[in-house]
Specification:
By secondary structure, the chain is α+β, with helices and mostly antiparallel strands. It has helices spanning 11-22, 30-37, 95-109, 133-141, 180-190, 194-204, 266-280, 294-298; strands at residues 2-5, 49-53, 56-65, 78-86, 114-117, 128-129, 145-156, 170-174, 212-217, 220-228, 249-257, 285-291, 303-314. It has 2 domains: 2-151 and 309-314, Aminopeptidase, CATH 3.40.630; 159-300, Aminopeptidase (3-Layer(aba) Sandwich). 27% of the residues lie in helices and 30% in strands.
Length: 317
């Protein structure tokens, strides 16, 4: 196998390989692949490789490390393997392991002390899909430690949801762009890290506010919920796999309520409002991605759709 550095000129072949191996469940679009695997500033190019056999693309590995200068709580000591995909004709021949080891060396040399499988910024998966049975054995073989199970949930049109008007002094509304900084400050204080990071990128990409529901009490933000659809300024994680649906797909999440206001049902109100606003846009199929709160969302008719297992590996001293 000839190994070459990550190169955009192979994007069509990379997408074709992905769809050959994973496309029935996770159909890849070139636009999404470019967004997540080339345009992300956290891509570790020196740790991402393409495998060729007589000029035929047979596999690839993508690694990332936090490299942005945004003032958010993301660690430079954490690295990610975004994906490692090998053509079926070349599996069980050491191809994947060879590419993975190259990526690991680059990550360790960059200063990373822990590697996660998936869950990267602009990720595809929060872990390894449970349907990729061979990959779980491969993770163990390469000394990755098994973690928790994460879920993507789906409501395929079930239930009737009205606007949550039963909360006294609390209003659920789409964000007015004039209050953008108020939301950013709220996230920085209450939910620093990935959720804040995703909001900053949303506004940097000219987001208008239609993707954020805010819960306000006495005109002060006490909670938020993100919603996505095909008109969002970039392809968001809960609508990645929209080609699987004949009709429009919407997404809900993340969402959060400030600690001082929890226990009052405002989280329920945010979910209800999110479904209400998406249904008002004509969207029936709605996905909540990367969650372990299966029982919480069940009351809104969401059921497990896709399952993942997290894996990680710490650097040996």
């Amino acid at each position: 196998m000839k190994v070459i550095e990550w190169n955009k000129k192979y994007v069509s072949e990379l997408v074709d390989l992905w769809n050959t191996e994973l496309g029935n469940e996770y159909p890849m679009r070139e636009e999404l692949f470019l967004q997540n695997s080339f345009q992300d500033k956290n891509l570790l190019k020196e740790g991402s490789f393409i495998g060729l056999e007589e000029d035929r693309l047979i596999g690839f590995v993508i690694s990332k490390r936090w490299q942005e200068t945004l003032d958010v709580a993301m660690s430079t000591e954490v690295g990610w393997i975004q994906a490692c995909v090998i053509h079926n004709d070349f599996q069980d021949q050491g191809v994947g392991t060879a590419l993975l080891k190259r990526a690991e060396v680059a990550l360790w040399e960059s200063g990373v002390t822990k590697i996660h499988m998936g869950s990267d910024p602009w990720h595809y998966f929060p872990g390894v899909p449970t349907t990729c049975e061979k990959a779980h054995y491969w993770m163990s073989k390469n000394n990755y430690q098994k973690g928790v199970t994460e879920y993507d949930l789906l409501n395929d049109g079930k239930g009737v949801f009205t606007y949550p008007s039963h909360f006294e002094n609390v209003e659920f509304k789409l964000l007015n762009l004039n209050h953008k900084q108020e939301l950013v400050d709220f996230l920085h204080k209450n939910f620093p890290g990935r959720w804040e990071y995703e909001a900053l990128h949303y506004f940097n990409r000219k987001g208008t506010g239609r993707e954020f529901i805010v819960a306000t009490k006495n005109d002060k933000i006490i909670g938020f919920c993100r919603i996505n659809d095909s008109l969002s300024p970039f392809i968001a994680q809960n609508v990645y796999w929209s080609p699987l649906f004949e009709k429009a797909l919407g997404g809900i999440g993340p969402l959060g309520v400030t600690a001082q206001e929890r226990g009052n049902g405002y989280g329920d109100g945010l979910v209800q409002a999110a479904i209400y606003f998406l249904r008002d846009r004509g969207i029936q199929n709605i996905v909540i991605d990367w969650t372990g709160l299966v029982d919480f969302y069940k009351k809104f008719h969401f059921e497990p759709w896709k399952l993942y297992v997290s894996y990680s590996k710490e650097r040996e001293e």
